[in-house]
Amino acid sequence: MKIPSMIAVRFAVVAVGIAVAPFAAAQATAWPERGVKIVMPFPAGGASDVLTRILAEQLQARLGQPFSVENRTGAGGNIGMEAGAKAAPDGYTLTSATIGTLSINQYLFKSLPYNPERDFAYVSTFWANCNVVMVSPEHNPSRTLKEFLAWAKAKPGGITFGSSGVGTTPHLSGDLFRVRTGIPATHVPTRGAPQTIPMLLSGTLDTSIDNIASYAGMLASGKLRGLAVTCPERWPNLPDLPTMAEAGVPDFVITSWGALVAPTGTPAAIVDKLSRTVAEVAASPEVQKRFLAAGARITASSPQEMTAFVARERVKWSEMVRLSGAKAD
After folding, report:
1. Number of CB atoms found within 10 A of residue 148's CB
2. Distance separating alpha carbons of residues 201 and 195, to the nearest angstrom
3. Residue-range domains of the chain with CATH
4. N or C terminus of the chain with fewer C-beta within 10 Å?
């Protein structure tokens, strides 16, 4: 039976009202009415820091208030995460979290000064990348991963590999590489890319399997040579580098990611408005290019999508930490 025109209009109005209600609620808040601080748990110049500053700039442009980044480093990101968790839940202190601080650290440390599941309102993911196997052309003749494996097997005492700390994805990547290839390898923790790069260039480290974003400039300049990437497919800005599977090491996919979180108790209207703004940023072709130039893909998710994603990541990384035997305490 055909619905009378007036009833059809009412149905349409109700349907539209239901569809736009979440958006209207998110936009109803006047937030932000002053500057917003984003706590960065890692050093300036690293991948997470660089990408967070690009995002902060874009949020400032769209929301009309200053977005500043404050580095609170130490303890594998735990110090900054604790500061973010204990901030007032008013939307004026956010935290730039990572795969490590939300899905790995709880399996490395006997205890954390924050609870990654209960202490934060999840806003959105905003970047993703993978790791790259690197050597210094000045100290290593290898041009392919196969050549590096042959060189490493012939080296007395095995190789050294650097990472930004115990239990980080570069550390777990190096341990997985050691197990899969059977090459003796010694882990050398560093304070991140600013320390790892000089050690690679000097030959103190033989290799590092670290995230692309922190080394994009060094790879582009040729000062460091990439041998393979840990992505499931080739990286857009490094199309000549094979995946680990293509290079001869199968079942070796490791990706990293970052996300924006707020203290638990932050009003849902603020969280939703911020999440939608991140999605707007991620839809910009110009920003997409900037992220790729910095070594990452820009991403976006709803709070609900991010919650489900992080839960899945915890399952995967708890097992990897268990297999590696890594402990941070």
Report:
1. 24
2. 10
3. 34-127+257-324 (3.40.190.150), 130-229 (3.40.190.10)
4. N
